[in-house]
Design goal:
The chain is an alpha+beta fold. It is 38% helix and 20% strand. Strands 2-1-7-6-5-4-3 form a seven-stranded mixed sheet.
């Protein structure tokens, strides 16, 4: 039962990171943030109004926010399959590195179908995308963060150009939801 709760928490945390990205919600940046608004090339494609806009996403918890963003539909499906929606929506002060649909499309279909069918593996992958603390943009320059999965991920870069684990690019960063900061990424991360 303990392992199940840990996995469920990890999946929910992963969902939390994905949802804010999907919704595109942005909240005011904290005093320690370098950016006042979300940054990155993909932010321009976020709807300007409605529940999928940056302002709309800021009003909802991460999983709900992500469900309003068509670019995050695969992530939302994965979070639902893992049973992490409530976990992510109820978490406080988390950061989610949310892969886009295009990120999931990089995985061969047979492999993705296998992962989506294996709840334990899916939960491990999704919770690896969630960090249990709010990460301000300035900390992305050279950071190492413990994930809900139990491993760690690293970030590097400057200005508005950051990578995660040396390969995933943050394409729209510092998106705020009611309970999380979301960094939308172009590659699905693999637990190390």
């Amino acid at each position: 039962m303990t392992t199940h709760h840990v996995r469920r928490s990890a999946v929910l945390a992963a969902a939390a990171f994905a949802l804010p990205i999907a919704l595109g919600v942005a909240a005011p940046a904290s005093a320690d943030s370098q950016q006042a608004d979300p940054f990155g090339p993909a932010c321009a494609s976020v709807p300007k109004e409605g529940s999928g806009s940056l302002a709309g996403m800021a009003k909802h918890p991460v999983a709900t926010a992500a469900s309003n963003n068509p670019a995050l539909s695969t992530l939302v499906t994965a979070v639902k399959k893992a049973g992490l929606v409530d976990t992510l929506n109820n978490a406080k002060g988390i950061t989610v590195f949310a892969p886009t649909n295009d990120a999931f499309a990089k995985i061969p279909k047979a492999d993705l179908d296998r992962i989506l069918a294996d709840k334990a593996e899916l939960t491990k992958i999704l919770t690896y995308h969630v960090v249990g603390e709010k990460i301000a943009p300035k900390r992305l320059a050279a950071g190492t963060f413990k994930t809900l999965e139990g491993g760690s991920l690293s970030t590097a870069g400057s200005g508005e150009s950051f990578t995660v684990n040396g390969k995933a690019k943050i394409v729209c960063g510092d998106v705020q939801t009611a309970n999380a900061t979301v960094n939308i990424i172009d590659t699905v991360l693999t637990p190390r």
